[in-house]
Specification:
Layout (H helix, E strand, L loop, with lengths): L1 E7 L3 E6 L5 E6 L4 E5 L4 E6 L7 E6 L5 E6 L3 E6 L4 E7 L5 E6 L5 E6 L3 E6 L4 E7 L5 E6 L5 E6 L3 E6 L1 H9 L22 E7 L5 E6 L5 E6 L3 E7 L4 E8 L5 E6 L5 E6 L3 E6 L4 E7 L5 E6 L5 E6 L2 E6 L7 E4 L2 E6 L2 E6 L7 E5 L11 E6 L6 E8 L5 E8 L11 E4 L2 E6 L2 E5 L5 E5 L4 E5 L7 E4 L4 E6 L2 E6 L4 E7 L6 E4 L5 E5 L3 E6 L4 E6 L4 E6 L5 E5 L2 E5 L5 E6 L5 E6 L2 E5 L5 E5 L3 H10 L3 H10 L5 H9 L3 H4 L6 H11 L2 H11 L2 H14 L2 H10 L3 H11 L2 H13 L3 H11 L2 H10 L3 H10 L6 H8 L66 H7 L53 H8 L3 H6 L3 H12 L7 H10 L2 E4 L8 E4 L1 E3 L8 E2 L5 H16 ...
Antiparallel strand pairs: 1-28, 2-3, 3-4, 4-5, 6-7, 7-8, 8-9, 10-11, 11-12, 12-13, 14-15, 15-16, 16-17, 18-19, 19-20, 20-21, 22-23, 23-24, 24-25, 26-27, 27-28, 29-30, 30-31, 31-32, 33-34, 34-35, 35-36, 37-38, 38-39, 39-40, 41-42, 42-43, 43-44, 45-46, 46-47, 47-48, 49-50, 50-51, 51-52, 53-54, ...
Length: 1218
C-alpha cells in the first residue's frame, strides 16, 4: 500500500473522488462532509447542514460543480462547491439514506434507503422520476452501470437485484422529459410503473448483503455480505448466475468493488482488513490490516489507480503499486519498459521504438515488481541494460546486446539476486548483496571482486566511471572503487529515492519525496530546496539547468539556486530528457511524449548569472519576458542597469536610473517626463553625487533661484553668482537681490537695495560701518539730523562670505571627483563605456574589448585619444620607431600647443598586476580593495557581518607593506612586499599573511586553552582562526584540504566551547538542562582524544550527580569501550564504577531530549537554541562553516562563525585559483 494521503476525523461512511481535480469528499458519522485535497493533504472545506445523524452517502457529479449527499435525516442535498452551499434538498424517503449517486449522462440521482425503496431523481427538475420497490429489508446500496441502463442494488433481505432502466430513459430523456411527471401521474401510482423493472434477482448469500458493484467493462457483479463471503456473479441478456465465492474475511464485509484498471477485486470488512483478490485466479493476493479501526467504505478513482478507504478514525488514499515508468535516456536514445518489454526509442526520430528484450513476469496481478532500469553510459560499443525487481527479495536482469540489434532477435537476460545494482565502468556493474557487501561483476555476470562498503549501505546508485554512490539512510557517500576511498558525502532530508546525472556527467541531482539536492560530479554542493508536494522526476538540460516535475507543475532550478515554474500539469509526468527547448517525458500509461518547453525565463536568468549580456538582451527581446517581475529580478540580483536597455516606459527608466545612480539616463527620462517631482528627485541625486552641472540645470528647469545661488556660492563660481544678482534685479525680487549681494560680499549693492526700499537708517548704518564715504553725505541728508553712528558696535568686524579654496577655471570640469565604486558590476567594461551604435549593445563579461579596437585600428579616431588617461597608448612593446617616415602624416592645420606641458602614461602598478593574475579575497585585501573583497566574501560565503573582519583586514594589509619615512610634513612611502617576482616583473604575487601553517598554529594554541579548561578564551581563539581562513591562500590541493579541514575543526570546537559556556551559565535549579547540554558536548566531533575523553567524563559525572543513571551509564560505557591511551588509565576505572552503580538503579530522574541508546554520530543540534534537530526535520545550514539550525533561523547571523547568513545561497569558499 502506497499511502498518498491519510486524514484523522470521525468515522467515515461515504467517499467520492472528483473526476478531474485532486479532491475527495468524505461524509462522516457526525453529520459533517469534508472536502480534502489529497495531493497536499489539506482540508479545503466542510459542509454541516445535515441534521440528525450520520451522512452515509456522497457523490461528485462527472462534469458539473455539484455533489450530492444523503443522511439519516431522510434528506438528499445537492451542493454547489463553487458557491459553497446547498442549492436544494430532495424529500421523499421515509428512513435513513444509505447511498446516493449521480448518473454519468442523464440528470439523475440514484438513492437507496432503509425504507426498502430505491429512488431515481431528476436533479434538474428537482423531482422524483421513479421508485424501485421489491426489496423487503433495508436497501444498503444502489449503483448505476457505467455504460448500460442498469442499476444494481444490495439489501439485507439477502438478495442482489439488477434493475433495467431503459424504459425510464426512453420516457424521461428521449421524449424530452426531465420536467415534473404528467398531470395524470402522481407519486402514488409510480409504485406500479414499468419504467424501471427488475431484471435479475441474485440469491446465494446467507445473510444480509451490504454492497454490490458492476464491473466497469465485463458483465460481472461482485457482492459482499454479513455472511463474510464475497460472491462473483456473471450475467447475460437472459439470466445471471453465481460464478464463484471468495472466502477469507472474519467479519461482515462492508464494501467490495472491481479495480477500474486491473483484474482485481478490493474488499474491506469490519474485521479491520482490506483484502485484494485476483479476478482471474479467484484467490486472495494480499491483506492490509489496521490495528484498531474497522473499515466501512471503499471507492476507486475512475481514471487513475487511486483507491480510498474509510474507517473508524478517518480515511486513507492509497495506491496498490507504484506507477512510475522504468525509463532512462542517454544521448538521443530512450530505454523504457512498455508492457514488460524493454524498448529502445530514438527520440530525435520518433516516439516509438524497437523491442530489445523481455522482462520477467509479475509475481501477482497487484504489483509489477519492477523498480529500476539502468543503461550503461560508459560502454559506447554495445547496449547494456539492468532491470531491478523487488520480487523474490530483490533480483535483477542483465541485458547485453549490440547497438544495431534487429527487431526480430531479442536479448536473453543474465539473472541474479541483489538488494540494488548500478553500472560502474564499461564492463562492470556493482551488486549490493543481501549481506551488505558489494560485489563487482563483469558483463558475463561473473563476480570479479567483493568488498565491504565504508558505511552501512541500503541502496546504491551510479556515481561515474569507477565510482559508486552509497545510500545510507539520509546520506549519500561517493566511493572511488579504484582508490578505495570516500570522495565526499552529502545529506538529503527525507532519504534519497532517485539519482539523476546530467548527460556530460558534471552535475547530479538527488531527489527525495519533497527535497532535491544538486551537486557537482565530486558531490560539490550546489543548491538544495524543498517542495510542499511530491517531486516526481527530473532531468538536466544541455545548459546545466535542472528541470523537474512535481504532481502539479514543471519547474526549473539553476545551479545558483534561482528557480521558477515553467507550466502547470493536469496529470503527473516523468521527465526523461530536456534537449533543445523540447521536453521528453513518459506518462503513467507508459506512453512517450514530446512537447515544446518555454525556456526563455530560465535561460535569461542563466545568461544573467554567467554575465553573457548579449544572450540576456536576446532572451528579453525574443522571449517576451519583459515585465515588472523581470525588472524586480534584475534589481534583486544587482543588475538594475541591465533593465535600462529594454524598458521603454520613461517613468520606470527614470526610477531605475536613479536607483543605479545613472544621472545621464535619468536626465534623458526626466526631459521626456518634464515633471517637477522628477526634476526634484534628479536634483537631489545629482547633488549627492556632486554632479554640479546636472544640479545647475535642474535648478534652472525648476526655477529654484535661491538654491541656484547657494550652489554657485559653495562651488565658488562668483561670475554666475553675479549673474544671479542681475536676474533677481530683473525679477524685482528684493530679498533675492539682497541675499545674492550678501553672498557676493557686495556692500555697495546692499546699501543701494536698503536705500531703494526706504530703509535709510539701515543703509546709512551699513555705509558708515564699512566707511563708504561716497554714500554717507546723501544718506545723512535724508536722515534729517538723526545720527546712527552711536549704533555701530565698538568691536565691529567685517562680515564677508568664505573664500573658496579652489575656484573653477575655464575648461575645468565642474563636477566633483568621484572614487570608482567597488560595487560596479564590470571590472573593465560596463554598459556606460561600451561604444554605443544606433542601438545599445550589450557586452559579455567574459568578452574582451581590445580585439574590437584592434579591428578598427590600434589608435582609433584622433578625437578619442586621451594622452592623460591610465591606459597605455602604444601597447606593451613599442619597438623601434626610428625607421618610420612621419613626414607625410603631419596635418596641414597648426597643432594646438598644450600649455600644461607633456603628458606621460602611467605604468601598471604592482597591485594591478597581481589582481590581473589572481583575485582571491587575500589578494584584494593586499591591494587595498577592501570593499571589493567584502563583496566577494558576500557572494562566496553569504557575509552579513563584516565587523570581526576589520582587524584581520588591517593585519593582512599591513603584512604586505613596508614603509619608508618621507620628508617632514609628508606621508611615508609604501612599498608592497612580494612573495614572487619583482615590481618590474609581469607576474607578481603578494606576500600573504594567512596560510595553512598560520591557521594550524592558531588552532593548536586554541586547543591548549581547551585542555586547560579556559573555554571562553578558547572560544575566542577558535573563532578568530575560523574568521581568518577566508583570507587565506592555499598553494595546492593538499594545502586547500588542510584549510577546509580546519573549518570543520574550528566549527566543532567553537560549538563545543559554546555549549560548555552556556551550561556554566545555567541556574543551579535547571538540572535537566545541565545534563542535556553536557550530553550534547559529547556529540561534538572534536579532534583530540583527550577532549573527547574529558567531555565524556564531564557528561558522565554530571548525569550521575543528577541521578540520571541510564544516561550516565551510556557515557561510562563509551569511556570503557574507547581507546584513550595513557589518559584512559585514570578515568576508565572510575567509569567502570559509575557503570556498575548506574546499572543497579537504571532510572533517569530528569527527562532530557537525548537518546542514550542512539547513534551520537548522527546527532544534530541547533547552534542557536542548543536544541535537538530531528532526523526528518528540515535544516538551515551556514554556507561557510556548515553549522546546522532549525529552519526558522534562516536569514539570521550564524552564531558559530559570526560572519555568514544562515541558509544563504552562495558560491562557496575559494582558497586557490581554479
Amino acid at each position: 500500500m502506497l499511502v498518498k494521503c491519510e486524514t484523522k476525523s470521525n468515522r467515515v461512511k461515504g467517499l467520492s473522488f472528483h473526476p478531474k481535480l485532486s479532491w475527495i469528499l468524505a461524509s462522516l458519522h457526525n453529520g459533517t462532509i469534508q472536502l480534502w485535497d489529497y495531493r497536499i493533504g489539506a482540508l479545503i472545506d466542510k459542509y454541516e447542514e445535515h441534521e440528525g445523524g450520520p451522512v452515509r452517502g456522497v457523490c461528485f457529479h462527472a462534469s458539473q460543480p455539484l455533489f450530492v449527499s444523503g443522511g439519516d435525516d431522510y434528506k438528499i442535498k445537492v451542493w454547489n462547491y463553487k458557491m459553497r452551499r446547498c442549492i436544494f434538498t430532495l424529500l421523499g424517503h421515509l428512513d435513513y439514506i444509505r447511498t446516493v449517486e449521480f448518473h454519468d449522462e442523464y440528470p439523475w440521482i440514484l438513492s437507496a434507503s432503509d425504507d426498502q425503496t430505491i429512488r431515481i431523481w431528476n436533479w434538474q427538475s428537482r423531482s422524483c422520476v421513479a421508485v424501485l420497490t421489491g426489496h423487503n429489508h433495508y436497501v444498503m446500496c444502489a449503483h448505476f452501470h457505467p455504460k448500460e441502463d442498469l442499476v444494481v442494488s444490495a439489501s439485507l433481505d439477502q438478495t442482489v437485484r439488477v434493475w433495467d432502466t431503459s424504459g425510464l430513459r426512453d420516457k424521461r430523456v428521449s421524449m424530452g422529459g426531465g420536467g415534473p411527471p404528467p398531470s395524470g401521474q402522481s407519486a402514488s401510482d409510480v409504485f406500479g410503473t414499468s419504467d424501471a423493472v427488475v431484471k435479475y434477482v441474485l440469491e446465494g448469500h446467507e445473510r444480509g448483503v451490504n454492497w454490490a458493484s458492476f464491473h466497469p467493462t465485463l458483465p460481472l457483479i461482485v457482492s459482499g455480505a454479513d455472511d463474510r463471503l464475497i460472491k462473483l456473479w456473471r450475467m447475460n441478456d437472459s439470466k445471471a448466475w453465481e460464478v464463484d465465492t471468495l472466502r477469507g474475511h472474519f467479519n461482515n464485509v462492508s464494501c467490495v468493488l472491481f479495480h477500474p484498471k486491473k483484474d482485481l477485486i478490493l474488499s474491506n470488512s469490519e474485521d479491520r482488513t482490506i483484502r485484494v483478490w485476483d479476478v482471474t485466479k479467484r484467490a486472495g493476493i494480499h491483506t492490509f490490516r489496521r490495528e484498531n479501526d474497522r473499515f466501512w467504505i471503499l471507492t476507486a478513482h475512475r481514471s487513475s489507480n487511486l483507491v480510498a478507504v474509510g474507517h473508524d478514525a478517518g480515511m486513507v488514499v492509497f495506491k496498490l503499486d507504484c506507477e512510475r515508468p522504468l525509463a532512462m535516456s542517454h544521448s538521443n536514445n530512450l530505454y523504457v519498459v512498455q508492457d514488460r518489454d524493454v524498448h529502445v526509442i530514438d527520440l530525435d526520430k520518433q516516439l516509438t521504438g524497437k523491442q530489445f528484450a523481455a522482462c520477467r513476469r509479475a509475481s501477482n496481478a497487484m504489483t509489477s515488481g519492477m523498480k529500476q532500469l539502468q543503461f550503461n553510459p560508459y560502454n559506447p560499443s554495445e547496449i547494456n541494460v539492468l532491470v531491478y525487481y523487488t520480487q523474490d527479495d530483490g533480483c535483477y536482469d542483465l541485458f547485453v546486446g549490440p547497438n544495431n540489434f534487429g527487431s526480430d532477435n531479442h536479448v536473453s537476460p543474465r539473472q541474479g539476486s541483489a538488494q540494488a545494482v548500478a553500472f560502474t565502468a564499461r564492463n562492470r556493474f556493482a551488486v549490493l548483496q543481501q549481506s551488505g557487501s558489494i560485489g563487482i561483476y563483469n558483463l558475463q555476470n561473473e563476480l570479479s571482486k567483493k568488498f565491504d562498503p565504508p558505511v552501512a549501505t541500503d541502496y546504491i546508485f551510479q556515481g561515474g566511471n569507477n565510482r559508486i554512490l552509497l545510500k545510507s539512510e539520509d546520506k549519500i557517500v561517493m566511493y572511488d572503487l579504484t582508490a578505495r576511498k570516500v570522495v565526499d558525502e552529502v545529506t538529503v532530508p527525507g532519504g534519497i529515492r532517485y539519482c539523476v546525472w546530467s548527460q556530460n556527467g558534471q552535475y547530479v541531482a538527488f531527489m527525495s519525496k519533497h527535497n532535491v539536492l544538486m551537486a557537482g560530479k565530486n558531490l560539490e554542493y550546489l543548491h538544495s530546496f524543498h517542495e510542499n508536494i511530491r517531486v516526481k522526476s527530473g532531468a538536466w538540460d544541455e545548459n546545466g539547468v535542472f528541470i523537474y516535475s512535481t504532481l502539479s507543475h514543471v519547474k526549473y532550478c539553476l545551479p545558483n539556486g534561482d528557480s521558477g515554474i515553467i507550466h502547470s500539469l493536469q496529470n503527473p509526468i516523468y521527465i526523461v530528457r530536456v534537449h533543445k527547448h523540447f521536453l521528453y517525458y513518459v506518462d503513467r500509461e507508459h506512453n512517450v511524449n514530446k512537447q515544446r518547453l518555454n525556456c526563455s525565463e530560465y535561460l535569461f536568468k542563466l545568461a544573467l548569472h554567467r554575465r553573457q549580456f548579449n544572450d540576456v538582451k536576446m532572451w528579453i527581446t525574443n522571449g517576451r519576458i519583459c515585465g515588472n517581475a523581470v525588472i524586480g529580478y534584475l534589481k534583486q540580483k544587482g543588475f538594475p542597469e541591465v533593465a535600462l536597455h529594454f524598458v521603454e516606459d520613461q517613468q520606470t527608466r527614470f526610477n531605475l536610473a536613479l536607483e543605479y545612480g545613472h544621472i545621464e539616463e535619468a536626465m534623458t527620462a526626466a526631459e521626456e517626463l518634464n515633471e517637477a517631482a522628477c526634476w526634484n528627485r534628479l536634483g537631489l541625486e545629482s547633488l549627492r553625487q556632486g554632479n554640479q552641472k546636472t544640479v545647475e540645470m535642474v535648478y534652472q528647469k525648476t526655477k529654484n533661484f535661491d538654491a541656484l545661488s547657494f550652489l554657485y556660492l559653495i562651488t565658488g563660481d562668483i561670475d554666475k553668482l553675479k549673474k544671479m544678482l542681475k536676474i533677481a534685479e530683473m525679477r524685482n525680487d528684493v530679498m533675492s537681490r539682497f541675499h545674492n549681494a550678501l553672498m557676493l560680499g557686495s556692500i555697495d549693492e546692499r546699501v543701494k537695495i536698503l536705500a531703494e526700499m526706504g530703509q535709510i537708517p539701515l543703509a546709512a548704518l551699513t555705509a558708515k560701518a564699512h566707511n563708504l564715504v561716497e554714500y554717507i553725505p546723501k544718506l545723512e541728508e535724508q536722515l534729517e539730523g538723526n545720527d546712527v553712528s552711536a549704533h555701530i558696535p565698538a568691536d565691529a568686524k567685517l562680515l564677508l562670505p568664505c573664500t573658496p579654496l579652489c575656484r573653477p577655471k575655464k575648461g575645468d570640469p565642474n563636477n566633483w571627483p568621484l572614487l570608482r565604486s567597488v560595487k560596479q558590476i564590470f571590472e573593465k567594461t560596463t554598459f556606460e563605456n561600451v561604444p554605443l551604435p544606433a542601438e545599445p549593445n550589450f557586452m559579455d563579461a567574459m568578452e574582451d574589448a581590445e580585439p574590437e579596437q584592434e579591428e578598427k585600428g590600434m589608435w582609433g579616431d584622433d578625437e578619442d585619444i586621451g594622452l592623460g588617461g591610465d591606459q597605455p597608448i602604444g601597447g606593451a612593446d613599442w619597438g623601434d620607431m626610428g625607421d618610420l617616415d612621419l613626414g607625410a602624416d603631419i596635418p596641414d592645420e597648426p597643432v594646438p600647443v598644450v600649455e600644461q606641458g607633456a603628458n606621460l602614461t602611467m605604468g601598471e602598478g604592482v597591485e594591478a598586476k597581481w589582481l590581473r593574475q589572481r583575485k582571491l579575497p587575500a589578494d584584494l585585501i593586499a591591494a587595498g580593495e577592501f570593499e571589493e573583497a567584502l563583496g566577494l566574501l558576500k557572494r562566496r560565503l553569504g557575509l552579513i557581518n563584516a565587523a570581526p573582519l576589520e582587524p584581520l583586514f588591517k593585519e593582512a594589509y599591513w603584512a604586505t607593506r613596508s614603509t619608508l619615512p618621507g620628508p617632514p610634513q609628508s606621508a611615508s612611502l609604501l612599498f608592497p612586499l612580494l612573495a614572487e617576482g619583482n615590481p618590474k616583473s609581469r607576474e607578481v604575487t603578494p606576500l600573504i599573511r594567512f596560510n595553512s601553517k598560520s591557521i594550524v598554529d592558531r588552532v593548536k594554541e586554541a586547543q591548549k586553552l581547551t585542555t586547560a579548561g579556559k573555554f571562553g578564551d578558547a572560544l575566542a581563539a577558535f573563532r578568530a582562526a575560523l574568521q581568518a581562513i577566508p583570507l587565506s591562500v592555499a598553494t595546492d590541493a593538499q594545502d586547500e584540504k588542510v584549510l577546509t579541514d580546519m573549518i570543520e575543526c574550528c566549527r566543532e570546537y567553537i560549538n563545543f566551547c559554546r555549549v560548555e559556556v552556556a551550561r556554566k551559565q545555567l541556574a543551579p535549579t535547571d538540572v535537566g538542562r545541565n545534563v542535556e547540554l553536557a550530553a550534547y558536548m559529547t556529540a561534538c566531533k572534536v579532534q583530540s582524544k583527550t577532549h573527547q575523553c574529558l567531555a565524556l567524563q564531564l557528561a558522565m559525572f554530571t548525569s550521575f550527580k543528577a541521578q540520571n543513571f541510564v544516561t550516565a551509564a551510556s557515557f561510562a560505557r563509551r569511556i570503557v569501550q574507547g581507546a584513550w591511551g595513557e589518559q584512559g588509565n585514570a578515568i576508565v576505572p572510575k567509569a567502570r564504577q559509575v557503570l556498575a552503580q548506574a546499572e543497579k538503579n537504571a532510572t533517569d530522574a530528569h527527562s532530557i531530549n537525548f537518546d542514550p541508546r542512539g547513534n551520537v554520530e548522527n546527532l544534530s543540534v541547533c547552534q542557536n537554541s542548543f536544541k535537538l534537530i530531528g532526523p526528518a526535520d528540515p535544516v538551515a545550514v551556514c554556507p561557510y562553516c556548515g553549522s546546522k539550525y532549525h529552519t526558522h533561523q534562516k536569514g539570521k547571523l550564524c552564531d558559530t562563525c559570526q560572519l555568514a547568513e544562515v541558509g544563504a545561497n552562495t558560491l562557496g569558499i575559494q582558497l586557490r585559483p581554479l
